[in-house]
Design goal:
The complex is a heterodimer of chains A (174) and B (196).
Chain A lengths: L11 H12 L7 E5 L1 H10 L4 E7 L4 H16 L5 E7 L6 H11 L5 E5 L6 H9 L6 E2 L1 E6 L5 E5 L4 H13 L1
Parallel strand pairs in A: 1-4, 2-3, 3-4
Antiparallel strand pairs in A: 2-6, 6-7
Helix pairs in contact in A: 3-6
Chain B lengths: L2 E2 L25 E2 L1 E3 L5 E3 H7 L2 E7 L4 H5 L1 H11 L4 E7 L6 H10 L6 E3 L4 H6 L3 E2 L1 E6 L4 E5 L14 H10 L13 E3 L3 H4 L2
Parallel strand pairs in B: 1-2, 5-6, 6-7
Antiparallel strand pairs in B: 3-4, 5-9, 8-11, 9-10
The chains are: A alpha/beta (174), B alpha/beta (196).
Chain lengths: 174, 196
């Protein structure tokens, strides 16, 4: 069971970004909340949607950037009851303001997103294992899971909007 | 029993994480013979004939993570190649042609061969998914180590040099950790993914 400390407090960089966005009156722009490995699990469990799509991406990963518009489009076409999309950046936290937020804004991501925040040695390995023991850590990675026995699937490498939609529809149809 | 992989084209397109068998410590690895970027033949068996161990590194020319390790890979080769440890880099990315691999290798002054893996046959056979991804094998082609080079793509922030520690332990005749340690990297661009 994830602990109550899974979500770490917003850090200085995040506050600066959020504050700047608030001052600019851009309430619809992306927010990026730091989250621990346990926190990611909590996010998935907390979702009420029938299907949860967790996309792990990074600003240094070209295929991740290429597939992002398709993911954003997909999210816009389903109700939150059917599909929840969680975007999780694997960037270094120090790249949040310079690379992560600008890309999300440019791509029109106007919903809350997350950036993994590692605490302690070995957490990157533990994080990868916790999401899917069969995952190598290669990005992009999209983990699509459904409630109940419908199952889950981890997709490594860039996927098109059509491919992701097909995966989601298969799970929703079960 | 050594297995020579000649042609192994998997029918799956866009492999899911669990679709490819990942080799584990203790497994016998598939042999390979491929062309270096300069056209010369390079085989795993050939490297093991002259060395006690071989380090096989799946790399890329365009992946920022793999490129962040260029200097460290060259350094590991400098440190260990004179100690009966041979190095082969494998480029399985369908999106990176051999000319690019050649230029990249020269620019980075790699002292080890960088072989091209057409149609990602070897990446599939070894279950390699990411760059950089490391395999260390002994003379009997037994896999001893599979995983990352170290724990941080930013060299200044590295706290654990997993591969260097493993190679040092092997040379000292010590046991090495059998568990694969993972890190974020770029997915290998397989032939199906590059198709129009």
């Amino acid at each position: 069971m994830p602990s109550g400390t899974a979500f770490i407090p917003r850090l200085t960089g995040f506050l600066a970004v959020a504050g700047a966005l608030a001052l600019a009156g851009c309430a619809s722009r992306a927010t990026v909340e730091p989250v621990t490995a346990d926190g990611v699990d909590s996010l998935r469990r907390a979702s009420d949607a029938r299907v949860v799509l967790l996309n792990v991406w990074a600003s240094w990963c070209r295929p991740c950037l290429d597939e992002m518009p398709g993911i954003v489009r997909l999210r816009g076409e389903y109700s939150r009851k059917d599909l929840d999309v969680i975007l999780l950046s694997a960037d270094d936290f120090s790249d949040l303001d310079s690379a992560v937020v600008p890309f999300l804004d440019k791509t029109g991501v106007n919903f809350p997103t997350y950036i993994i925040h590692f605490i302690g040695e070995g957490d990157q390995d533990a994080f990868v294992r916790s999401l899917d023991p069969g995952w190598s850590g290669a990005l992009p990675a999209t983990l699509i899971s459904a409630r109940g026995p419908a199952g889950s699937r981890t997709l490594v490498g860039e996927r098109s909007y059509e491919q992701l939609k097909k995966e989601v529809d298969v799970l929703l149809a079960r | 029993m050594k297995t020579l992989v000649a042609v192994l084209l998997l029918a799956v397109s866009f492999p899911a994480a669990a679709d490819l068998k990942s080799l584990k410590a203790g497994d016998t690895v598939p042999a390979f013979a491929l062309k270096n970027y300069d056209g010369k033949d390079v085989s795993l068996e050939g490297v093991l004939k002259d060395n006690q161990y071989a380090v096989v590194m799946f790399v890329a020319t365009r992946c920022p993570v793999s490129n962040a390790y260029n200097g460290r890979m060259a350094g590991l080769h400098s440190t260990f190649s004179g100690k009966k440890i041979g190095f082969i880099a494998v480029n399985s990315n369908n999106s990176e042609p051999v000319e690019e691999v050649r230029d990249h290798s020269k620019e980075n002054k790699f002292g080890f061969p960088v072989v091209k893996d057409p149609n990602n046959v070897i990446a599939d056979a070894w279950g390699a998914m990411v760059t950089p991804e490391i395999f260390v094998v002994d003379k009997s082609m037994k896999l001893l180590y599979h995983g990352r080079i170290d724990d941080n793509r930013k060299e200044g922030d590295v706290t654990k040099k997993d591969l260097a520690d493993a190679l040092t332990a092997l040379l000292a005749g010590k046991e090495i950790a059998k568990e694969q340690l993972r890190a974020f990297g770029c997915s290998i661009k397989r032939v199906e993914e590059s198709a129009p």
